[in-house]
Write a structure and sequence with these properties.
This is ABC1 atypical kinase-like domain-containing protein. With 148 residues, the protein is mostly helical. It is built from 7 helices and no strands. The protein has a domain at 78-148. The chain has helices at 2-12, 17-30, 33-51, 80-90, 97-106, 124-137, 141-145.
């Protein structure tokens, strides 16, 4: 359980506790299937009428859902993550896990000093890309890039 993992992280790498705490919050949120079900239904209802020609959002299959199971319609096609990675690569961002970590660390608005090969402050475009990536994956993009 998360309490046991938290204790292990605290004992082995106490400096990683803030990262673990964010992971734990996201983990608990992702396992709240009633909340996820409501969010998915709301996203489907909001996006499908206007954007169905460009974006597909699965519909909730209410008959097959329970407190422990979230079931949605199957959507054939390219996964959104693959499309996002392709768009990032087209914009000149290395979309590998290591490349995304480097990009996200370099564009971290909370960083004390500019980071990057050129030594310049992050571009507004890069900061917007980071924010869009965070909205897309629903969590701090750095956690996503580290696959936590």
């Amino acid at each position: 359980d998360l309490r046991g993992l938290r204790a292990l992280v605290w004992l082995s790498q106490p400096e990683a506790m803030p990262l673990f705490d964010e992971f734990a919050r996201q983990y608990v949120t992702e396992l709240d299937f009633a909340r996820e079900r409501a969010s998915l239904a709301a996203m489907h209802a909001a996006l499908t009428p206007r954007f169905s020609s460009t974006v597909a959002v699965p519909a909730v299959d209410d008959e097959r859902c329970s407190a422990r199971i979230l079931t949605m319609s199957f959507l054939p096609g390219e996964p959104l993550e693959r499309s996002v990675r392709a768009a990032l690569e087209a914009a000149g961002v290395d979309a590998s896990r290591a490349g995304l970590r480097k990009f996200l660390e370099a564009t971290d608005p909370a960083a004390d000093a500019p980071v990057g090969a050129s030594g310049r402050a992050p571009l507004a475009r890069e900061s917007r890309a980071r924010a869009a990536l965070e909205r897309l994956v629903g969590m701090d993009a750095l956690l996503w890039a580290y696959d936590l």
